[in-house]
């Protein structure tokens, strides 16, 4: 895990500098280091990633050329197309090379990053796109080289934390003849559950955003935390504590530096990665969390803290309560669909957890009710508009198209 954390820190730093100095997107805040890390773990990753990105790019081009869609709709289209393309590509490769790629590792294949990359590249001007692609390629190869050198030169260095790249399923261990340590955790979550989580979470996230103009903690963070918590009940405490700490850190950093947007998000994810690395080095023997779960939960800590920072103070408490309620609901569904292992949440002390869960869901429902009540009535909103009361060229307010005509309605 030390190696993947170093790759992540270097990649995030490169992305922050590129965004701050040259306004380069590099395909997304986390795309470059995540792509390098998964390439070391599975050598088919670049093929899957490129096919998913090209498919998402084609969908964006078609929508821009033949429809009036823009902004968020284009982004969702790119993400959805990229996910479908990566799933299909992974399935085909798993059938052609069954000994090389196992389609059961659906968590690694169903990624939103190809769609994000295509969307960000589409937003870059054609004159700068070639230069940005060149920087992405060079940065990707540099991160791969850093990872290989660290694993090769310091083989005992990586055994101090929960394994990530040194598991038996990692391709890099066989390629550089590195002795794997640790064993992968037993699979307790069926692949079909993982595959349907992403579209459902996107639907809930976007529906909530459009209905209440309110952002949740992240598109896939809540259900993914549920999946991690099935393997280790400590993930919830680790995330909650980390998100709180990093939130105060980035709030202070923003106050002192005026950072915002992509740069502040990068700083937040960077701090989340450092937080998970410190935990892995000093506390991994006391609290058992798998290396993959620990690494990605650290990333989620940074994203969650950043999104909490973006929310206004007035709705920040509602943000926390609703996110917590959605987590309880999603984990309850997992509880009924799978057998929770000994290390997972809700394996014992059911009465206590049920009581706490009911309280959390009740608070979330109260906040949802308040948000629902805050939505103005459409007719009242239109009647209060300045245009509804205007009189231009002899047209009175009673003839405004913004106000309903009771006679016409009848």
From TrEMBL:
It comes from the Archaea. The keyword GTP-binding does not apply. Pfam families: Caps_synth_CapC. The chain crosses the membrane at residues 42-63, 75-97, 103-121, 133-154, 188-205, 212-230, 236-256, 263-282, 288-308, 320-338, 350-369. GO terms for cellular component: membrane. Keywords: Membrane, Transmembrane, Transmembrane helix. GO terms for biological process: capsule polysaccharide biosynthetic process. This is CapC domain protein.
